[in-house]
Amino acid sequence: MSHSRQKDAAYVTIGQVAQAAGVSKTTISRYISGQYEALADSTRQRIEETIAALNYRPNQLARGLKRGRSNLIGVILADISNPFSTAIMRGVEDVAKFHGYSIVVWNTDNDAQKERDYIFIAQSHKIDGLIINTTGQNNAFLRDLGGQKTPIVLVDRKVPDLNFDTVCTDNRSATETALHYLLEKEYERVALFTEPVEGISSRTERLETFSRILAENGHVSTSDVYVVDAHNQAHLEKSLLQFLYDSRGQLRAILAGNGVLLLKLSRTFQRLGIRVPESVSYLGFDDPEWALLVGSGITTIAQPTYQIGVTAMNRIILRIGQEDGLTPEIVELPGELIVRGSTPGKMT
Amino acid sequence: MSHSRQKDAAYVTIGQVAQAAGVSKTTISRYISGQYEALADSTRQRIEETIAALNYRPNQLARGLKRGRSNLIGVILADISNPFSTAIMRGVEDVAKFHGYSIVVWNTDNDAQKERDYIFIAQSHKIDGLIINTTGQNNAFLRDLGGQKTPIVLVDRKVPDLNFDTVCTDNRSATETALHYLLEKEYERVALFTEPVEGISSRTERLETFSRILAENGHVSTSDVYVVDAHNQAHLEKSLLQFLYDSRGQLRAILAGNGVLLLKLSRTFQRLGIRVPESVSYLGFDDPEWALLVGSGITTIAQPTYQIGVTAMNRIILRIGQEDGLTPEIVELPGELIVRGSTPGKMT
DNA sequence: TTGTATGCGTTATCAA
DNA sequence: TTGATAACGCATACAA
């Protein structure tokens, strides 16, 4: 009696609909599940009207409990602020929506403990699938998960020795393309600026390919790899100056390992008054919206982010229902080199 | 028999834990709910060990069904790609996590129909609270929702005549600050570039304040408001050229209504070879990470996005549990003018 | 074509 | 301090 009629209206259940429509709960349930072939046209119509009139919405909690699935897909991101992650999310969401799933997101801030916590929470919500952009520091933990039945798909980062579906950029090819482009442009010295690579396959692959291609082409300066903390401005500056000094007099370029570093490098050039491309050329992974605004545009290696999300979610859909089997697959989608003014090569 | 022991292990229930620990389900339930004062130390310890051994995770679906709450908070965004939205999400998530809630996100792409669909879906999942960055085209629909008990908080955009908790930037003050700054810098002519304002309070308020302040200061050119479609490059260019022609010979500035327009304007200046700030000055709402990279930096009006998220979620927490009452409140958080090189004023 | 009865995993009520 | 039992809202097996 303490609640208004208005508020009680928010709690319409299948029983009330049944009563109002003059049929049993089972019949309503059949309607909800779309089993129209088992319903008389007249009943169906009556139910339709009753549901609309009462504004009834089936309780997903009850439904999920009974059917053993929640219609929820979990997405665990290392960094939700990164446009790279949001683009993936969009892809995931579009497919999820199409199949009637909603998305629960968790942000780990690249913290392995948080990642573990969130995986537990995801499980307790009985999510029907999980997409993880892993920190790369819970491999043993993830291995255990593999045995369970909830479909898991890794995005952007592979986990070695683990049989998980994985969707990522073809980092080796992309790096190769970028370096060959630079070599053709007759750069004499190329540096790689990357964040720490441990456990993060995308970074590792870029680093390895970088070293390999340079070695294959007679560039012996493997020392031109700078592992930096993107949030340590001083260290970044020091590394940059080091490279500029080491390569003085040579035609040189810097490859930024991701979008964050590309931003930080741009900022550092600006602060130190280093002229691009006259003094140094640069390019980088990711293709942030502002890349074409800086100077005469920054050359980038765009990643198929949206497509990664779409592919990952499609894989989840495929696994759902599929009782057993389906061998884990690693899908590598091609990146794209977008040439702009920051890497003109030898100027005549 | 068709499943491995491993897989069955994923489905530990409270009953199995009870059996293994030699107590009743009720006792386990008490442990889960943290009612330690009703448990003997010895039992408590035994339960603790059993849960760890079996790797038990309470089923949130069952829990939610029984308790009438899901531990889920819904967030409906008009555009998840916009960094503005992600920043809000971060704020929401931090607070949500602290209180044991997880976040379900939906992206409406500024589509009113999608917004309605998602609100229904959110309700069916029995979310414990809903945060909406509304498209502004479902006001009647939202009004109905107000009567129900699920706490709803609007972010960024107010809905007139509706009593909802709302958290947004203080757009009037922010716009005022920006314009006073421009007037002090002796700009003779100022234009506003905005996306369509219908139903979107933030844009409306910026527009109104723009007109008011200019009028108060003897600028009669109310015609200097350009309503543009951010995705129509041709129209944007035309509007820009129109303004530049109209204001030829005057010291002039353009105020971009949001981050998207700021980007498009920057791009257009670049394409048309228009020199900033020599030929025209500009500044804009939002403070995207690249604002300081373009030219000698773009003057911006930063919005307290993270804080908006935090405040909105705190409000939800406050309302949850609170049986009735709590008058809806509109919280306007201050923006901040960040002066950079794009608006130097009269150069001597 | 429709209905009855049972149970999903948990919590709340009551009793011991 | 602990337990038996009913109930949350729905879907399913079986019966009619």
Write the layout of secondary structure elements.
2 copies of one chain form a homodimer.
Chain A (H helix, E strand, L loop, with lengths): L4 H4 L5 H8 L3 H8 L8 H14 L5 H8 L4 E6 L5 H16 L3 E6 L4 H13 L4 E4 L6 H8 L5 E4 L9 E5 L1 H14 L4 E6 L6 H16 L8 E3 L5 H14 L5 E5 L2 H14 L8 E5 L13 E4 L2 H15 L10 E4 L2 E3 L10
Parallel strand pairs in A: 1-2, 1-3, 3-4, 4-5, 5-11, 6-7, 6-8, 8-9, 9-10
Antiparallel strand pairs in A: 10-12
Helix pairs in contact in A: 2-3, 2-4, 6-13, 9-10
Chain A binds a DNA duplex (16 and 16 nucleotides) through helix 3 and helix 5.
User: How many structural domains in the coordinates of chain A?
Assistant: 3
Give the count of helical stretches of chain A.
13
What is the CATH homology-level superfamily of the largest domain in chain A?
Response regulator
Give the helix level of chain A as a range of percent.
40-55%
Stretches of chain A where pLDDT is under 50 for at least 5 consecutive residues are 1-9
Question: Distance between termini of chain A?
Answer: 87 Å
Q: What oligomeric arrangement do these chains adopt?
A: homodimer
Query: What would you report as the Rg of chain A, rounded to the nearest angstrom?
Result: 26 Å
- Identify the strand order in the major beta sheet of chain A: 2-1-3-4-5-11
Following the backbone from N to C, one meets helices and strands of chain A in this order, namely HHHHHEHEHEHEEHEHEHEHEEHEE
Return the average pLDDT of chain A rounded to an integer. Answer: 92
Helix/strand/pairing category of chain A:
alpha/beta
Can you tell me the overall shape of chain A? elongated
What characterizes the major β-sheet of chain A?
Answer: 6 strands, parallel
